[in-house]
Structures are given as structure tokens and as C-alpha cells.
Protein 1
Amino acid sequence: MPQLDTSTWFTTILATITTLFILFQLKISKYIYPSSPELKSMKSLKHNTPWETKWTKIYSPLSLPLQ
């Protein structure tokens, strides 16, 4: 069984890591990064919600009445 012959493992692993390193470098170098990101407005927009506020309140377990 050739898998049990450990004499070629180092060469195989080294070749695999080198190939992956080169491929990732080529893939990353082709990516175009935005040169100047646009500033976004920090104003918070008011959303019109169709539900009532009383049904959307989040209750903390410690603030609930004891039963």
C-alpha cells in the first residue's frame, strides 16, 4: 500500500502547501479593493412600523413578577 510509505509524505505535503500558497496569492492579487470608500450619512431614519409598541417590549427575566 503506497499510503503507508512515509518517504514521500514530506515532498507531497510541501508541494501541496506551496501550490496552495501560490494559488491563493494569485487569487488575492486579482481582487480589486475600493480606492476611496464613500461616507454614509449617520442620521437615523425613523421607520414606520405597523405594530404597536406595547407588543414589542422586551422583558428581562429579572424584571418579571414572581409567581
Protein 2
Amino acid sequence: MINFNYETEFSLDNEQAFTDWLSAVIVSEEKNEGEINYIFCDDEYLHKINVEYLNHDTLTDIISFDYTVGNEISGDIFVSVERVEDNAKDFNVSFEEELKRVLAHGILHYCGYKDKSDADAELMRSKEDEKIAMFHVEQ
């Protein structure tokens, strides 16, 4: 089950479309969907988590806590809407595209993808692009 929680004024326009897409992303990686909680927040909220739990005194766009067991992926994914907005501007993409990238990024970590080395980051980026292309909304 995928849940969306809001600790900021932001909210997704079409939660069902995002849920369907993220579920498809999980299936495409041959994983089972457990309980995944997305928590949308601001920089201050996520910075506190970054300092308290990871001992990193920096801003970030996403922090994920992985509770995956075997093939069933579960976890809490915190997303700073402010960072996503700034990154979208920095990368010259729409807010929605950058948001999809971040949402997929969290799932991909749970599927075992890493991004610390250049090679891993390149694979992660490729997987993000692949998963973003899977998103569609029925018109």
C-alpha cells in the first residue's frame, strides 16, 4: 500500500495516478509492494531528520528509511517539496518531472539500486528515466 502524507501545504493533484504508477514501478522491478509512506515536507522538517537520524547538517531532497524484507519493499520516504522545486529549476525541468524522479528514486533504493559511485549513479539515473517514462494519466 502506498500512502501520501503531507506536512506542508503541498498535495498531489492526482494521488491515484501516482499510486498506480509507483505500483507499476515496483512490479517492473519484480518486487512486491509492502507499505510505503511518502511524507511531503519542507526543508526545515527534512533538515531536522537529516541531522537527527543521519548526522548530516545539509539540505536534501529525499531521505528514505528502508523497511524492506525479502522481496516485499516497504519504507518511509520523506520528500522536501522546496528542494524538488529548486532542483527542477537547477536542472531546467518541470516540477512534476523532478518530483517523479525523486519518488521513483526512493523506490529504486528499496529495490537495491545505489548512487554513491559514478557508475551506480549513472545506472540509477537511467532507471529513473525508465520509470518516469512509465507514468501516464488517463485523459
Protein 3
Amino acid sequence: MVVGAFPMAKLFYLGIRQVSKPLANRIKDAARRSEFFKTYICLPPAQLYHWVEMRTKMRIMGFRGTTIKPLNEEAAAELGAELLGEATIFIVGGGCLVLEYWRHQTQQRNKEEEQRAAWNALQDEVGRLALALEALQAQAQAMPSLSALEELREELQEVRGQVCNAHCTSKCQAASSKK
């Protein structure tokens, strides 16, 4: 049984997401304790969230034009801290998704480049083989055909026969009998 490579990147992202929850809880605790954090970071988003939520609920129930009272500071700080914690988890999760997408795109791009390089190498090899084939075909056409060789052999024997008849020497007869 072949075991594939363990996806270390996915394990790393899962670890980051698991660490983000306690991190969000620490941020919430710090937001509750720090006056600056509470006043400038937690309260404005909490009041805005409360206003949008209440306005939406009022419109759904059919009440229009009613004024919405802002949350008291304690409730707004609590809601702001919760929103901040959830935003932290969301941002970490979104960051992990973006990193995973980027990693996948990089792998895909590398794979396509490898395929393109292999394709180009195959095309080069086919071109080289086509040139070699053309050269071999040209050599084959330049060579005399088998029937032409037979004709030349017959002419050679006729010439030998004529030379032998003309000189009638024993050497010529011996030479023609060897062939």
C-alpha cells in the first residue's frame, strides 16, 4: 500500500486556526480591561453593529422611523470584544484560505511549466527525427536501384566476355570462371 505525502501545509493551517481561538479570547480579555481598547476599538463597531441589527429587526417587524437607543458602555464593550474576537478568527481563517489558494496556484503553475517543457522537448525530438528521416530518404534516393546494379553487372560480364574473346587468353577465362 502506497502512502501519499502528508499535507504538512494543511496541518500547519489547522494549527494556526486552533491557536487563533485562544488568541481571540486573550484579545477579548485585553479589550475588556484596557480603557483605550474599549473606547476606540470596541465601542464604535459594537454601537454600529447594534444600530444595524436593531434597525433591521424593526423594519422586519414593520416599525419604521423609530429611534434606536445606543447600548450602554458595559454591553457595548462586551459586544465589541466579541466582535473583535470573531473578526480575529475570521481574518486568520481567511488568511489561511488565501495562503492555501496561493500555494495551490503555485503548484499548478509549476506543473503546467513542467508539462510545457516536456511538450517542447518532445516537439524538438520529433523535429530532429523528421530531419534525420529526410536525410535517410535523400540517401536512399541517391543510391542506385537494385535493377540498375543488375544491369551494370550484366554489362560488366559482356565487356569481360568481349575482352576474353578478343584476347583468348587463359587468364581471362580463369577470371571469368571464378565469377
